[in-house]
């Protein structure tokens, strides 16, 4: 009996497949699902079967009935649509739609927004500062006095303008860390901010250098901020930005405005730590510099380093989309080429 | 800095692989950028000794040297001209990997028959071993090489390339790196024996030192050696210098450089006979004083610069470069050796002003410790006596006006915990500091220690510095991972931030691609925006020493860069182009930082839609640009007035100033033909520009909900005929002024045809609605008639028949 039912089902579906007109569909319905159909007969005759068999046959017959009804409905919809198309009321749905112009945000804008979102969810507020800055905020306040060798690593573009004393000490900020002191002068702790923006260096353009690029700095000041918190914050950022299973490295490094200082690197995506051309054979890609804000920097900004501790970090932004999308020339980011911009 | 592992191993025992050592140093702050293994692939190459040289039976230029390899003796064919019986050589057995001396390609050595004689092996040149390009003859090894030992054991090495951070001048030396390695691996540093017999007369009788500028020279030490013989230095010394990236010159000069690489203290050797008056004076240069330096250039000095002088004249620019007059020559026999400490800022400025980079300057300007002078001086004096002969004067001259007693630093367990977020025991802390050479004493409280940093660590002065030392020796990976506790600070984001994001997204939604261009631009480009040339007013801010003329000025607008971008894209884009940039422009303010308002600028050119079967791909016009401004503002809930504009870069007939609340916040219009020509654009280009900083306050106005009327609206269409000079705005101002008018929309504009010349027809759909009752036809008619009357009276409008 069960085998018979299965056979019935496959015959019915085969015939349904072949149906192409509404009237044939009705005939099919009568044949397989009508009052006098075999299936209806089986269901009616169930009571005559032994109880064990009754259960099995009943379940299968009902399942087949439901299945066939569903198939019927679907077929009927298809036939109706085909009919509409034939009368000219339907459309060729493969024709292209109206070409509304589409635009896109620059990959750097997208990256900055993504980074800011991640830090915002950890309670960091976005703050911006001036791009044309005083020597004081860019260097002096950050423990980089004149003649400090750290100035050499940040070739500076100076602006041809004077302050009130007639000194030419205006520059294009070389890092967004310049905003740190301004924030601490304006807000009192607890402070948690991220500071994205453009920075400038006296550097000729090539595939890895441009005279203007983007950075984001972060600063937290509170009573119990520790380096462990810095680690936690940056690891969480790395997890969300680079992915769950990217290894992260935290090593000692030097920046004049922090002590202790840190450099964070992520495992190279190409070689997974084995060393390749992308990571300069180290297996790691340096992502950011960080550390506990130097007590002299806190003091100068009006924060008592005996009462408060603070961490700070700074990260180049341009490399992030370059790493993510495999962009091999930084100048593409500033080239305004639509063939490039359409890809993001 | 490049450091040889072999050299390093002379001062500290190392049982780590190069990779492990590199990792330890990198993690602790001195990044190993890479390392190169010399001899890593020297398998099957051993030290051999030539025991006989027989002639080749079939070739005059070839010989058949017999080489003793300890376990066996092999005879091979060789063409080198410098073979001698008894010399030690590098011998490659069959199977060795070599560089072909002629082609430079890597080869694997096989047995070969050369002019009829079989040769199973090879005596190698430096080039064949990959050490240098020298292929003149075979490489002759030092006599102490032991026959039979693998060559890699005898002269293999690993050269580390280190990135020393600017705070660690002590690590610009092999001893400094050895100290790091020792601290990180629990080893001890052993320094070379630097004592020497001082057989000469007391130094005070032969030379005097005076410092007249103690602010620029805290310490000056000197030794004197007479009767030296200048000659080339031994090979081992030359190799050390070459590995450190320095060129060997002669024994005494090489020793000063060697000791600088070894101890980190730059030394300078003067020819004693050229020191007039037997006196060294460390003083500021006279204004306008001149000195010919070692490189033969005459340098003009200033009063800020420190010189080393004798009784009559300057003989060196202190810490930067020596003078030619007192230079070591082949005939020099007596030398004064200087080891001094100079003010880092002064060295930086002098080196910068004179454009003289040097190894010495790099070390001095990072602030090496004045305590280094004596050990380095002793070491160099000893080496000179050992390698160049002569005898040392008794004693050392040491003038030390800047001497400071070391300041103890108090470090507590709780300070470490406060900064690091992890608790270390006092034992751990003490252990880490002692391994670095710190002197740790008990302090008043049991949880504190009194620390005196080692004399070579000029960078340690605060408890925070010690915290870093402890953390990096114990390991940054021991610091736990936590999140900042405490209350999340109040958030008060600046409204401009969200506003910028909204505008960007809107523009992308209107089909514009965002670009980011350089804030620095050229005067040429800015002048292209002017149809009639005139000086830019106000003058844009200029950078001093611009890299190129194209990057000389801070942009006062976003237009120029965008037009360049449009032109560049037009070379490969046929369809419509829509670009925008949102960023800052810079306007000078007297004696202050410039104003940096956030601006939006967008350009449209080409067809409105891409070519498609739907048609509608006509070119964009003024109203596309205006529509974007209207759309943007309407979504922000801002109503703008479009007033006749006067922007010189735009077509005077098709431009409007965007005015909000009586304030000009932007402009929209067609670029002036002369401007598009100047940018090589052969099409009409439309621009919109909005000062977001200026517009922002209007977006912050408090909005109130308008109740939605429950009563049906009455819609009426009217077609008016007016003089061509009457504007749409004049008409809608009148219509909207009546009560019950909810909306006015222009749906047709018509000129020509049956209309009288000078007239135009405007058709409006007016929606009437009352907030409080169902409007009757009569009521609507009444208002409509009043409207028509007023339009007739004020604008001379008639209804179109």
Task: Summarize the structure in words.
The complex is a heterodimer of chains A (344) and B (801). Chain A is of the alpha+beta class. Chain A folds into 2 domains: 2-87; 107-133 and 173-341, 2-Layer Sandwich (BirA Bifunctional Protein, domain 2). In chain A, 40% of the residues lie in helices and 18% in strands. Chain A is built from 12 helices and 9 strands. A 7-stranded mixed sheet of chain A has the order 1-4-5-9-8-7-6, with helices on both faces. Chain A has a two-stranded antiparallel ribbon with strand order 2-3. In chain A, a hairpin with a 5-residue loop joins strand 6 (248-252) and strand 7 (258-267). In chain A, helix 1 packs parallel to helix 4 and helix 2 (22-33) packs antiparallel against helix 4. The longest helix of chain A is centred in the first third of the chain and has 37 residues, at 51-87. Chain A starts with a helix and ends with a helix. By secondary structure, chain B is α+β, with helices and mostly antiparallel strands. Chain B has 6 domains: 2-39 and 158-185, Phenylalanyl-tRNA Synthetase, Chain B, domain 1 (2-Layer Sandwich), CATH 3.30.56; 45-155, Beta Barrel (OB fold (Dihydrolipoamide Acetyltransferase, E2P)), CATH 2.40.50; 203-399, Phenylalanyl-tRNA Synthetase, Chain B, domain 3 (3-Layer(bba) Sandwich); 409-478, Phenylalanyl-tRNA Synthetase, Chain B, domain 1 (2-Layer Sandwich), CATH 3.30.56; 495-699, Bira Bifunctional Protein, Domain 2 (BirA Bifunctional Protein, domain 2), CATH 3.30.930; 714-799, Alpha-Beta Plaits (2-Layer Sandwich), CATH 3.30.70.380. In chain B, 26% of the residues lie in helices and 27% in strands. Chain B has 21 helices and 43 strands. In chain B, helix 6 packs across helix 7, helix 7 packs antiparallel against helix 10 (373-388) and helix 11 crosses helix 13. The longest helix of chain B is centred in the last third of the chain and has 19 residues, at 777-795. The relative contact order of chain B is 0.06. The mean pLDDT of chain B is 93. Classes of the chains: A alpha+beta (344), B alpha+beta (801). The interface between A and B is large, with 97 and 103 residues.
């Amino acid at each position: 009996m069960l085998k018979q039912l299965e056979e019935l089902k496959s015959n019915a579906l085969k015939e349904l497949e072949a149906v192409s007109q509404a009237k044939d569909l009705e005939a099919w319905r009568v044949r397989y699902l009508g009052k006098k159909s075999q299936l209806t007969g089986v269901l009616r005759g169930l009571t005559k079967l032994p109880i064990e068999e009754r259960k099995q046959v009943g379940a299968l017959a009902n399942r087949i009935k439901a299945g066939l009804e569903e198939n019927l409905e679907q077929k009927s919809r298809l036939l109706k649509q085909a009919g509409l198309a034939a009368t000219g009321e339907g459309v060729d749905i493969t024709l292209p739609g109206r070409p509304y112009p589409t635009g896109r945000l620059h990959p750097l804008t997208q990256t900055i927004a993504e980074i800011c979102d991640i830090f915002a969810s950890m309670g960091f507020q976005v703050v911006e500062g001036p791009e044309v800055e005083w020597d004081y905020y860019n260097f002096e306040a950050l423990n980089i006095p004149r003649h400090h060798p750290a100035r050499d690593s940040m070739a500076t573009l100076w602006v041809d303008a004077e302050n009130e004393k007639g000194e030419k000490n205006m520059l294009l900020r070389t890092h967004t860390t310049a905003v740190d002191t301004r924030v601490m002068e304006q807000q009192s702790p607890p402070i948690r901010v991220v500071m994205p923006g453009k920075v400038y260096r006296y550097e000729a353009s090539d595939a890895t250098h441009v005279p203007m690029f983007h950075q984001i700095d972060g600063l937290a000041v509170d009573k119990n901020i520790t380096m462990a918190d810095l680690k936690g914050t940056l690891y969480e950022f790395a997890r969300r930005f680079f992915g769950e299973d990217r290894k992260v490295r935290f090593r000692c490094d030097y920046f004049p405005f922090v002590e202790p200082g840190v450099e964070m690197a992520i495992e190279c995506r190409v070689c997974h730590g084995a060393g390749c051309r992308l990571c300069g054979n180290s297996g790691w890609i340096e992502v950011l510099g960080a550390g506990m804000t130097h007590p002299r920097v806190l003091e100068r900004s009006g924060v008592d380093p005996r009462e408060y501790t603070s961490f700070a970090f700074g990260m180049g932004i341009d490399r992030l989309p370059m790493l993510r999308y495999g962009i091999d020339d930084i100048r593409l980011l500033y080239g305004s080429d639509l063939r490039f911009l359409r890809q993001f | 800095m490049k450091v040889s592992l072999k050299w390093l191993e002379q001062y500290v025992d190392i049982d780590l692989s190069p990779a492990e050592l590199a990792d330890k140093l990198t993690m602790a702050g001195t990044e190993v950028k890479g390392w190169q293994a010399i001899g890593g692939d020297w398998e099957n190459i051993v030290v051999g000794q030539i025991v006989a040289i027989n002639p080749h039976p079939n070739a005059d230029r070839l010989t058949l040297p017999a080489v003793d390899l300890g376990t066996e003796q092999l005879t091979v064919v060789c063409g080198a001209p410098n073979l001698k019986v008894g010399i030690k050589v590098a011998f490659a057995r069959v199977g060795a990997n070599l560089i072909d001396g002629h082609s430079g390609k890597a080869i694997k050595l096989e047995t070969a028959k050369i002019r009829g004689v079989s040769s199973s092996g090879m005596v190698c040149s430096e080039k064949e071993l990959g050490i240098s390009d020298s292929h003149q003859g075979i490489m002759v090894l030092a006599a102490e090489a032991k026959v039979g030992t693998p060559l890699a054991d005898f002269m293999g090495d690993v050269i580390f390339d280190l990135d020393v951070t600017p705070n660690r001048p002590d690590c610009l030396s092999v001893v400094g790196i050895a100290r790091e390695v020792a601290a990180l691996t629990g080893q001890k540093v052993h320094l070379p024996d630097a004592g020497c017999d001082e057989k000469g007369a007391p130094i005070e009788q032969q030379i005097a030192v005076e410092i007249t500028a103690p602010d620029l020279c805290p310490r000056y030490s000197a030794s004197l050696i007479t009767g030296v013989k200048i000659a080339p230095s031994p090979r081992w010394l030359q190799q050390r210098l070459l590995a450190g990236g320095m060129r060997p010159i002669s024994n005494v000069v090489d020793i000063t450089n060697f000791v600088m690489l070894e101890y980190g203290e730059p030394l300078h050797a003067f020819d004693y006979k050229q020191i007039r008056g037997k006196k060294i004076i460390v003083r500021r240069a006279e204004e306008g004083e001149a000195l010919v330096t070692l490189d033969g250039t005459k340098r003009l000095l200033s009063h800020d610069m420190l010189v080393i002088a004798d009784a009559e004249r300057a003989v060196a620019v202190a810490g930067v470069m020596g003078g030619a007059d007192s230079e070591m020559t082949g005939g020099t026999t007596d030398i004064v050796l200087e080891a001094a400490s100079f003010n880092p800022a002064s060295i930086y400025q002098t080196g910068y002003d004179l454009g003289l980079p040097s190894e010495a300057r790099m070390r001095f300007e990072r602030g090496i410790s004045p305590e280094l002078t004596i050990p380095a001086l002793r070491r160099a004096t000893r080496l000179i006596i050992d390698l160049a002969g002569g005898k040392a004067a008794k004693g050392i001259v040491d003038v030390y006006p800047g001497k400071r007693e070391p300041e103890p630093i108090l470090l507590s367990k709780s300070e470490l915990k406060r900064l690091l977020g992890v608790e270390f025991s006092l034992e751990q802390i003490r252990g880490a500091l002692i391994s670095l050479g710190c002197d740790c004493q008990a302090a008043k409280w049991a949880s504190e220690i009194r620390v005196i940093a080692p004399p070579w660590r000029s960078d340690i002065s605060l408890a925070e510095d010690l915290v870093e030392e402890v953390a990096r020796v114990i390991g940054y990976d021991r610091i736990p991972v936590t999140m900042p506790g405490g209350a999340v600070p109040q958030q008060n984001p600046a409204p401009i931030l969200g506003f910028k994001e909204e505008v960007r997204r809107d523009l992308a939604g209107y089909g514009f691609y965002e670009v980011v261009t350089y804030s620095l631009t050229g005067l040429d480009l800015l002048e292209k925006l002017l149809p009639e040339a005139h000086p830019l007013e106000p003058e844009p801010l200029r950078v001093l020493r611009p890299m190129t003329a194209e990057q000389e000025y801070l942009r006062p607008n976003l237009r120029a860069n965008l037009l360049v971008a449009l032109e560049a894209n037009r070379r490969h884009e046929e369809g419509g182009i829509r670009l925008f940039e949102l960023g800052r422009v810079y306007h000078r303010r007297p004696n202050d930082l410039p104003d940096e308002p956030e601006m939006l600028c967008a350009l449209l050119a080409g067809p409105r839609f891409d070519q498609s079967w739907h048609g509608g791909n006509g070119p964009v016009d003024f109203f596309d640009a205006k529509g974007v401004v209207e759309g943007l503002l309407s979504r922000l809930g801002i109503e703008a007035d479009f007033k006749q504009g006067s922007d010189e870069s735009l077509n005077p007939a098709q431009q409007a100033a965007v005015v909000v609340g009586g304030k000009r916040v932007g402009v929209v219009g067609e670029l002036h033909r002369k401007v598009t020509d100047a940018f090589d654009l052969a099409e009409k280009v439309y621009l919109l520009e909005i000062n977001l900083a200026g517009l922002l306050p209007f977006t912050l106005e408090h909005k109130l909900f308008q109740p939605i009327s429950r009563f049906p609206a009455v819609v009426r269409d009217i077609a008016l005929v007016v003089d061509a000079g009457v504007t749409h705005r004049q008409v809608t101002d009148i219509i909207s002024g009546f009560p019950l008018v909810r909306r006015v929309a222009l749906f047709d504009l018509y000129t020509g045809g049956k209309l009288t010349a000078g007239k135009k027809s405007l058709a409006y759909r007016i929606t009437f609605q009352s907030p409080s009752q169902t409007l009757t036809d009569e009521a609507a008619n009444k208002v409509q008639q009043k409207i028509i009357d007023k339009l007739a009276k004020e604008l001379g409008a008639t209804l179109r028949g």
